[in-house]
Amino acid sequence: MNAIRHVAAAGARSQIGVFLLPLLGAAGYRVTALSRQENQPAILGGPIAWCSPKTAPSAIDGLVSCGPLSLARRWVEHSEGLERVVAFSTTSTVSKKNSGDQAERILVRSIAGEETALKALCRERGIALSILRPTLVYGCGRDRNLSRLLRFGERTGFIPCSSRAGGLRQPVHAEDLATIALAALGRPGNALFESPVGGGSTLTYREMLEKTARCGSRPIRLVSIAPALMVPMVKAAAISGLASGVNSEMVHRQATDLVFDDSPAREFLGWNPRPFDPTPADFELPPEPKREVST
């Protein structure tokens, strides 16, 4: 990059944002971190400035959205002179499209609709748009999948798993996603780019849990449960409030392959994510972002 450019990062407190902010700063960008929380220090970590939606600058060159697409669309509507947008969506728009859970179907339809609206807005304004759809994200303890299961295992000494957990997964590290966002921000051309982005390993759901369990602060074992028993257990946990945000479809999906072709990202953006060999550090905030991001 020949000159300092002004980039806004929406969803700066997300698990991808934790890694994105220092990468943008190191690349020489002037960075504005967008947060819905009002009480943020004006400057954190050198060239990174925090602001709320009410105080966000309208003149920015690029936007990287690590949060809801609806917010990304509003930032685009608000901004002047915006040239490039990189927005993270999700492969759930495909994998949960026909979910047996109504709430999941409604959510992914909403996300798909926001994708369509953002595409139309960027096309109308001549803005180069990249939409990246990650698979299962981990990397700093802020995800609601592997980190949540690991914390449960650390409390109880076990992680429940369907006895039919042979479905394939491609877990992807949040830091790798931050890296590809940087690549997408600097890509040549103005054509729409969109691609799934999976991790460097394809492994079964059970194998993924086994590797996750080894990162615990105590010995954690997997307990295999037949789906016919696990489904009512999950429903009871959800109804009682013992486990929020869980449903029976999560049990059934453990037997389903959720693998996506991310060759466009590999070919055009040099996507080369790490394999899934997590350590305990991958389930907690890294030291520097912890000082900058947490409150």
Word description of this protein:
- The chain has 295 residues and is α/β, with parallel strands linked by helices.
- The chain has a domain at 6-140 and 170-200 and 259-293: NAD(P)-binding Rossmann-like Domain (Rossmann fold, 3-Layer(aba) Sandwich), CATH 3.40.50.
- It is built from eleven helices and 14 strands.
- It has helices spanning 15-26, 69-78, 92-95, 102-125, 146-156, 174-185, 205-213, 227-240, 248-253, 263-269, 287-293, and strands spanning 6-10, 30-34, 43-44, 48-51, 62-65, 84-88, 128-134, 137-138, 158-162, 168-169, 172-173, 193-197, 203-204, 221-225.
- The strands form four sheets. The protein has an eight-stranded mixed beta sheet with strand order 3-4-2-1-5-6-7-12, with helices on both faces.
- A hairpin with a 3-residue loop joins β3 and β4.
- α2 (69-78) packs parallel to α4.
- The longest helix has 24 residues, at 102-125.
- Residues 41-45 and 289-295 have low confidence and may be disordered.
Please sum up the structure shown.
This protein has helices at 15-26, 69-78, 92-95, 102-125, 146-156, 174-185, 205-213, 227-240, 248-253, 263-269, 287-293; strands at residues 6-10, 30-34, 43-44, 48-51, 62-65, 84-88, 128-134, 137-138, 158-162, 168-169, 172-173, 193-197, 203-204, 221-225. It is an alpha/beta fold and 295 residues long.
Provide the descriptors you would attach to this structure in a database record.
Rossmann fold; alpha/beta; globular; two-stranded parallel sheet; about 300 residues; 8-stranded mixed sheet; about 40% helix; 14 strands
